Amino acid sequence: xxxxxxxxxxxxxxxxxxxxxxxxxxxxxxxxxxxxxxxxxxxxxxxxxxxxxxxxxxxxxxxxxxxxxxxxxxxxxxxxxxxxxxxxxxxxxxxxxxxxxxxxxxxxxxxxxxxxxxxxxxxxxxxxxxxxxxxxxxxxxxxxxxxxxxxxxxxxxxxxxxxxxxxxxxxxxxxxxxxxxxxxxxxxxxxxxxxxxxxxxxxx
Length: 204
Prior knowledge:
HAD_sf, hydrolase
C-alpha cells in the first residue's frame, strides 16, 4: 500500500479557510496575523487555533459553510489526485482546518479520506469553539503514524506548506514543500517551483 497525504489550506486550496471565514465576518486582519505566526512556527498551534476560532463567535453558520465550499483549488488539484490513484496511492487530506471544507472537497477531488476539525454551532451561529483530532501542532504526525500502521504503508508521500506539516515530513519517504513557508522548505525532500500541483507527480 502506498499513501499520499496532503495538507489542505494553501496546499490543495489556494486559501486559508479560517482567514476566508474571518474576512466574511469582518475580523480578517486579526486572524490573518495569527495564522501567519502559527504557520511560520512562531506561535503554538493549539492556542492559536482556539484564539482564531473564538473571533468567529456569532457568525452565521450557513454563511460560513458556503465560504468553506467555495474555496479556490490550486491548479492541478484534480489531476494530481487522479494521477496518484493511477500510481496505486491512497490519497488522504489531514488539516488543522474544518470539516465543512475538507469534507466537501474530499468528494469533489475523489480523496479516500479527510481528517480535520469541527466548528461548533448553536442556534444557527458559530459559538467560537472548535474541536477535533487535529488541534495540536503534532496531531498530523500522530494521525499519519496511525494511518501508516493501519494501512501497512510501504511508501508515504507528504505534501504541505506550514510548520505543522514538518512532523509529517519526518515520517515520509518523499516530502514536498508546496507554496511553503521557509521553515517548511528546509525540512522537505523537494520544494515545488510552481503553484501547479501536477509538479508533485514529477517528484516520484
